Amino acid sequence: MLRPIVLVPACTCEFGLHEYQAAQSKYVEAVVNGAGCAPLIVPALGAGLDLETMLAACDGIMLTGSASNIHPSHYAEDVLDATLPQDRARDATTMPLIRAAIRRGIPILAICRGFQEMNVALGGSLHQALHGVDGLMDHRENPDHPLAQQYGIAHTVALVPGGVLARILGPGDIGVNSLHGQGVNLLAGALAVEARAADGVVEAFSVAGAPGFTLALQWHPEWALADNPVSMKLFGAFGQACRTYRAARGSAA
């Protein structure tokens, strides 16, 4: 049986003098080993990408984390720190992709930057520096630490009882890693909070009333996936949603 196809939007980056389209290996591997699906990396071409062709071919979308931030013009703000990387081509690709996928009921799993993209695409805004907001924790990793320590458990999040995330994982708190400088300021009206950190920062949300599976996480469940039962449950739920969507798409053909 053919596996469901999951679109993974690429980031733009430079190697030497040339620009490349790239996706981190840990994300595409998580699509295979966690969700049981087949990843298809989609170039960040903005308006040059044929969205209809991409959406007609896929059974799910995973929005990845990235070193870059969303340009704040998308939520009517100026750039706070010009030294931080941005990726306008990815912004121009994922924003319309998110809105179109939600309308179609295509399953979405969004991680870190992808989480922030979903909020902004639907009308929300971001704190450009959580660590500069009174009362909020510093959610960034220490870049001088080895990767295993950077991606280690940093704090807990409280799941909203009865929510999508709680139905997947069960009630209670879970420990998560934390590698983000930005985070939700104004939550888009279409979104339902699924989890918060102790300082109140939104760490997970879903799209209320969406026809398909939509779950966005501020942390990184793709890291050391096979060793994390919580992460395996999350990717397993996403993979099942993609298989269900594929079956329904096939029966309607």
CATH structural class: Alpha Beta
* Poorly predicted sequence stretches spanning 5 or more consecutive residues: none
Overall 3D form: globular
Our count of domains comes out at 1
- CA distance, first residue to last residue: 17 Å
The spatial strand order of the largest sheet comes to 4-1-5-6-13-12-11-8-9
Q: What structural class do you assign from the helix and strand content?
A: alpha/beta
Question: What share of residues is helical?
Answer: 25-40%
The helix tally amounts to 7
DSSP, total strands:
13
CATH architecture: 3-Layer(aba) Sandwich
Mean pLDDT: 97
Would you list the SSEs in sequence order as H and E?
A: EEEHEHEHEHEHEHEEEEEH
Q: Which fold name is given in CATH as the topology?
A: Rossmann fold
Largest sheet report: 9 strands, mixed
Please state the CA-atom Rg, rounded to the nearest Å. 17 Å
Write the CATH homologous superfamily: Class I glutamine amidotransferase (GATase) domain
